[in-house]
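Service request form, structural biology core

Requester: graduate student, group of Dr. S.
Request type: structure prediction, single chain
Budget code: on file
Notes: please return the result as structure tokens.

Sequence provided:
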Amino acid sequence: MTPLLDVRDLRVAFPGPAGPCHPVDGVSLALDRGETLALVGESGCGKSLTSLALLRLVPPPGRIAGGHVRLDGADLATLEGEALRAIRGRRIAMIFQDPMTSLNPVFTIGRQVMEVMEVHGLARGAAARARARELLVEVGIPDPDARLDAYPHQLSGGMRQRAMIAMALAGEPELLVADEPTTALDVTVQAQILELLDRLRHERRMGILLITHDLGVVAGRADRVAVMYAGQVVESGTTAEVFAAPAHPYTQGLFASVPRIHGPRRPLVPIPGTVPPPTDWPAGCRFAPRCDRRAAACDAPPALRPVAGTHEARCWLAPEVAR
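Core staff response, request fulfilled:
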């Protein structure tokens, strides 16, 4: 079966003093309808830039330098003008990290939700306003009639995030890209937003690409997970496969740095060092400078290797690490 989203060898380039650098370097992902794929990793790994590339929103002077992004067969990497605008916001939509900077402060919530429908020819005037009200109800915003005429600064952080979700749903997309949708919210509101996204995914048979650094969110919400490091996917598989037997030392390091509520007490073990900049990727395995399992083979760049089932890891020692 053809996946809803099929990303193959995606590369994003930015000019640099010594030539172009590639903060996204050969990323491949696949996502089916009604499925949630979590993209995880530290800040600076390329997660958000990957999501922007899917919608052709890479900030200049960056550009897509290779690969393809197919949405139900249509290659978004080659579309331009009206063909691209017909898909962006209509078939694929995005929720950004901070709704306060993503919503327009001088327009009401209702105006911003209605605009999506008007741009894509779905509804206008009173019909668009009625549909906007329905969407506010659907995402759990109380007193929707009053909220339609409210400005972003008049809503709480959770309400603004729900309004962003309503805007994203206004085009009735097949794919929703959620980039750290709960970062600025308190724990209770985070759970409500994640439950809302999960419910909408089931009701609408929508694919969700969930970008996060929170492994707890991944465990409870994602069907599959892809771990990014230094511009590459270093491990992927079903959530059960990756959580049961992480096969890349970086993934194991992420798990070791997460505090646990249950079980015996143990010290948190941080991953030493930091993610290298795109202008200075290591020549071999990109995690090797921070890895306590580094071997001679790590001087050569590894490819994704099968571990078990659909589980793959970009490590020369992957089966051994998983065991």
